[in-house]
Amino acid sequence: MRIAFAGTPAFAAAALQALVESHFEVALVLTQPDRPTGRGLRELPSAVKQLALRHGLAVAQPAILRNEEILEQLRLAAAQALVVAAYGLILPQAVLDIFPAGCINIHASLLPRWRGAAPIQRAILAGDRETGICIMRMEQGLDTGPVYLARKIPILPDDSAGSLYDRLAALGAQCIVEALPQIGQRTLAPSPQPADGITYAHKILKAEAAIDWQRDALDVDRQVRAFNPFPGAFSSLKKETVKIWRGFAGTGLSGRPGEILACAADGISVACGTGIFKITELQRAGGRRLSAAEFLRGLPAAKGERFVAPG
């Protein structure tokens, strides 16, 4: 089956790799333009572009999809379908109309729950117990198209957005390889999404990652996990911003929200509105991620001191 592919980050690269290994003919790969990355702000290619070039695939990096040049390039690719995974650009109707088998999206949620940009983080923040992958036919609405195939996985108690991202990327790659031949042969019909249960996964804002210690410890735990690895949940200790990467919710001690109740090599116990959150991995500004024991050697903290909202 001859296809085109549109995607940008590692999530999409996993799907592209699986399609290449399964001997789909990839006529053209679309990915976003190279972006300045890291402290040096060097322009680096996306994970999808790097993979495509290693396989000798044709790559296009349009900033928009509404000009005739890219539309003609897509037509000339003569692909039966366009597979889309975390591409980052909205597909106009002119693109949707080019492919006989349609534009097929790999979406990282169980639609219609968590339509939109950040389904993995939103599922963790909401305390969902499961999520999954939907293979859907794209239309003009935001993730509103009918679904060809859905697969569920549990959200584990210690899942971060990063670990869940990796598991969903692998599952998405499996699902698209399974579904795409049937879509091309028209032996797999999509089902409309239910009208009930629609939620939207709005883009993550950095301000959301500031920890509110007045919330329940389970809420703090979800916040830490949802924002690992990006943008990183954070708070302030001794007037210094600290990113908090790992920990777990517990009970047994009490104090003012943000108050350090105990410091030990295995973690820093902090009071929440209800319960405690024991921090096991954290990072000072400009430093590296450290265990609680390592962190306390560099920035000693004592019982009674408080984590507060950054000023």
**What is the terminal-to-terminal distance?**
56 Å
Please, how many domains? Answer: 2
The residue fraction in helices comes out at 25-40%
Q: What would you call the shape?
A: elongated
* Series of H and E elements: EHEEEHEHEHEEHEEHEHEEEEEEHE
Q: Output the radius of gyration.
A: 22 Å
- Main sheet, how many strands, which sense, barrel? 7 strands, mixed
User: Any idea what the CATH superfamily of the largest domain is called?
Assistant: Formyl transferase, N-terminal domain
CATH class of the largest domain: Alpha Beta
Low-pLDDT ranges: none
Quaternary assembly: single chain
Find the CATH topology of the largest domain: Rossmann fold
What is the second-level CATH architecture of the largest domain?
Answer: 3-Layer(aba) Sandwich
Q: What spatial order of strands do you see in the largest sheet?
A: 5-2-1-6-7-9-10
Overall mean confidence score, pLDDT: 96
Strand content: 25-35%
Task: Let me know the number of strands.
Answer: 18
What would you call the structural class?
A: alpha/beta
Number of DSSP helical runs: 8
